[in-house]
Amino acid sequence: MGSANRLTNGQGRHPLFSFGVISDVQYADIPDGCSFIGVPRYYRHSMLVLQRAVKSWNNLKNLNFAINFGDIVDGRCPKDQSVNAVNKVVGEFEKFNGPLYHIIGNHCLYNLPRDKLLPLLKIPNPRGGGHGYYDFSPTPEYRFVVLDGYDISAIGWPHDHPNTLEALEFLRRKNPNSNKNSPEGLEGLDRRFLMFNGAVGKEQMEWLDGVLQDATNLKQKVIVCCHLPLDPSASGQEALLWNYDQVMDVIHRYKCVKVCLAGHDHEGGHSIDSHGIHHRVLEAALECPPGTFAYGYIDVYDNMLSLVGTDRMKSTNISFHP
């Protein structure tokens, strides 16, 4: 992970900037367990993965920022420990010597409502109303667009909030099961219509369209970040954003978006869609057995991203037309 490796990845050129990445820490001070399909989960060890990641990022000395792709604390965390657990994990993130950007995940919202969560994660909320989508430009050439995949969601908003009611009505129509987290009987891509997923709402969709138009005018390349994956070929069907197709219809109107990064599907994945956009889903910190790790950093160039992964996070070179 030294400078020689960084130069080789960029074909002998220094990156324009670099940033750390980690996803699905899902810490909880509880014994190890399993997912609903029996995949082992290491709730306490995930904190060690995060600590190792932050130490590694700081040792590199030239990362410009870091992004956490969501699910900071696990839904099985006892509710009376939620605030302390979130603060504990945030405290570890804040040992990073640079700016941090957090993305809302479903497990975050199992623990805390939006009005408590957003301030703890210091998520920008310029429009008010508890929304978790925003954008930033680390250099003039690039813009990051962070989507709130739980904008329309049955979790996180007050029970009588219009976004909650819209999500519950959507699930009623799309998923006939009494347990709305069960995909039983759902076929193909319909298996994404589960309560632990969500959707991008109309207002956010209009915002996204405006940001991409602005980035196009400024000749910026865009990296879209979301907890929920946006392409079926990079993810299991059960992990997709409910309206990923509508979001991608907006994105595909423009040529500025080069890469979409996500978490949520713990196995990770990589695909290139019909418009040449790369989709990279990051492997989860939570599912690292003791002694293993999953985090990395990304070097960004004019015509490529180079993800340098550690251990279970796979290194990936992503090339595109500048």
UniProtKB/TrEMBL annotation:
Cofactor (UniProt): Mg(2+)
SUPFAM superfamilies per the UniProt record, alphabetical: Metallo-dependent phosphatases (SSF56300)
Record keyword Metal-binding present: yes
EC number annotated for this UniProt entry: 3.6.1.13, 3.6.1.16, 3.6.1.53
Keyword terms, alphabetized: Hydrolase, Metal-binding, Zinc
MF terms in GO: ADP-ribose diphosphatase activity; CDP-glycerol diphosphatase activity; metal ion binding
InterPro entries on file: Calcineurin-like_PHP (IPR004843), Metallo-depent_PP-like (IPR029052), MPP_ADPRM (IPR041869)
Span of domain Calcineurin-like phosphoesterase: 18-267
Group of enzyme by EC: hydrolase
Domain of life of the native organism: Eukaryota
Catalytic activity as recorded in UniProt: ADP-D-ribose + H2O = D-ribose 5-phosphate + AMP + 2 H(+); CDP-choline + H2O = phosphocholine + CMP + 2 H(+); CDP-glycerol + H2O = sn-glycerol 3-phosphate + CMP + 2 H(+)
Subunit relationships: Monomer.
Protein family per UniProt: Belongs to the ADPRibase-Mn family.
PANTHER family, per database record: MANGANESE-DEPENDENT ADP-RIBOSE_CDP-ALCOHOL DIPHOSPHATASE (PTHR16509:SF1), PTHR16509
Protein name per the record: Manganese-dependent ADP-ribose/CDP-alcohol diphosphatase
Origin species: Theobroma cacao (Cacao)
